[in-house]
Design goal:
Layout (H helix, E strand, L loop, with lengths): L6 H4 L2 H9 L3 H9 L8 H8 L3 E7 L5 E7 L6 E4 L2 E5 L8 H8 L2 E8 L4 E12 L3 H7 L11 E12 L10 H23 L2
Antiparallel strand pairs: 1-2, 1-5, 3-4, 4-7, 5-6, 6-7
């Protein structure tokens, strides 16, 4: 089956029944009619390039879901082509639940949130562990990083969608707060100097 948009993947019979039960089926039928968001656009690529953090959801063959944080410097999520993303898999707690799940079930979802702008993007696809592609691993290494990358995750994008901003708390990174504070402090110094001259 060719994927026309995310509803082909996310709207199971049970989901549609729940939409009907809660009075949202008509709205969602309309959404499902329009083919869209089945490849990585320039806009999606630019959005992901600004993220320092994503959530990666996988599921075991038994059906148990698992969500794990993945992070890195801005640009750690790389767009390889119109259907493929990749990012470093840095060493962590050595439980390897995500990688074990992907070994038996490649279906995965990425949730990328921009808290400052209160926007979130959901991406459905299939993911795989990469250990034997040195060229890709080297390309995913952040500039100046002391970590020698031995693993990555390659993610084949099938569909994506943008959520509404409802209930996303507006949060800012330390870098953003420090930049705003520096500008404010510089202005205070400037105004104090003007007052002293009077």
């Amino acid at each position: 089956m060719a994927i026309r948009n995310f509803t082909d993947l996310a709207y199971s019979k049970s989901v549609k029944a729940m939409q009907q039960h809660l009075g949202a089926r008509d709205r969602n039928e309309e959404l499902a009619r329009e083919p869209r968001n089945t490849e990585v656009t320039d806009g999606l690529s630019a959005y992901l390039a600004e993220r320092t953090s994503i959530l990666l959801a996988t599921a075991a063959k038994s059906g148990w879901p698992y969500v794990q944080h993945r992070g890195g410097p801005k640009g750690f999520v790389h767009t390889l082509d119109r259907h493929t993303l990749a990012f470093a898999d840095y060493p962590g707690n050595k439980q390897y639940i995500t990688l074990g799940n992907l070994a038996e079930n490649p279906k995965a979802t990425i949730l990328a949130i921009d808290h400052a702008q209160r926007q979130r993007v959901k991406i459905w696809g299939e993911a795989a562990l990469v250990e034997d592609d040195r060229e890709l691993l080297d390309a995913l290494m952040p500039e100046g990083s002391a970590v020698y990358l031995t693993r990555a995750i390659r993610f084949r994008v099938l569909a994506w969608d943008i959520n509404c901003p409802s209930h996303i708390p507006q949060l800012f990174t330390l870098e953003e707060v420090e930049a705003a504070s520096a500008a404010m402090l510089a202005r205070i110094v400037e105004l104090e100097a003007q007052l002293a001259e009077r």
